[in-house]
Amino acid sequence: MAPAFAQKNQVTSELGLGLGGINYKGEIAPKYRFGNNQPAVMVFYRRDISAPVTLRASALLGGIGGTDNYFDLPLNQFRQARMRGTLLEVAAGLEYNFLDYYDLRRRKRWTPYYFLNVAGFYASTNTESSVQASIAEGSVANLVAGNNAMLSIAVPTGVGIKYALSHHWNLGLEIGARFIFTDLLDNLGDATPLPLANPHDNDWYFYNGISISYTFYKIPCPKVYRSKPSPLE
User: Fold this and answer.
1) pTM of the full predicted structure?
2) 37 with 28: CB under 8 angstroms?
3) Is the pLDDT of residue 1 over 50?
4) Other CB atoms within 10 Å distance of the CB of residue 111
């Protein structure tokens, strides 16, 4: 039986561009809803360190948002809040290919993959409610009104699939979740009155999109063929 991954005699790297959407999950959107996707763009770089394992780095920029009106839960209908903002993420980590993608003997090259990254992100968000509440005798204000700009850490993980269109060009599809260590992405956290938010559940965001990338190949020259070997070789 042939080995699942052939011995590598080349080094490959990829540079690519992805288009898709950022999706938020939190108090205002307690469930993943595809319609919450806000336009996003990703640039990424991959470099293989073995046949199945690839180093990857990426930058992601896009909008982020959610609306209580899309959910029929009593709290969402009472709060009537809407969150909008912008998010920038820079990430690096590992990717595991389940098939030998760069085995050029394969007639059709494709593979599913899993990735795990560590990321830093910057988010600027604004949250407002259409419901008016009395704050003092004779005066009213929005039930929820807040804005925030933050730097924090996320752990992106997910799956994807890539397909070789040619020797150099690749088409990809990816979906990934980002666990973050804060509940303030939607401005509904510890400082919010308890009836309006859950302070014990951190927010999440997701990215799903398609990509196109270009592969660079490098074949190391065996020492025996080098024009001027050193005395130690």
Assistant:
1) 0.84
2) no
3) no
4) 19
Cα dihedral 58, 59, 61, 65 sign: positive
CB 175 within 8 A of CB 206: yes
Looking at residues 130-149, what average pLDDT do you find?
64
CA angle 47, 16, 87 (to 5 degrees): 105
User: Taking a C-beta distance cutoff of 8 angstroms, is the pair 147, 191 a contact?
Assistant: no
In this structure, are residues 149 and 123 in contact, taking their beta carbons and an 8 Å threshold?
yes
At 63-74, the pLDDT tens digits run 999 998 889 888
Please report which helix (H) or strand (E) contains residue 28, including its range: none
Q: What pairs with residue 54 in β-bridges? A: 48, 95
User: What is the share, in percent, of the chain residues with pLDDT greater than 90?
Assistant: 56
Q: Where are the beta strands (DSSP E) in the chain?
A: 11-25, 38-48, 53-67, 81-97, 110-129, 132-136, 139-142, 145-164, 169-180, 204-218
Residue 39 has pLDDT above 50, yes or no: yes
Q: What is the mean pLDDT of residues 223-230?
A: 56
Q: Is 26 exposed, middle or buried (0-12, 13-18, 19+ CB in 10 A)?
A: buried
Instruction: For the beta carbon of residue 46, count every other beta carbon within 10 angstroms.
Output: 21
Please give the span between the terminal C-alpha atoms of the chain, in angstroms, as a whole number: 36
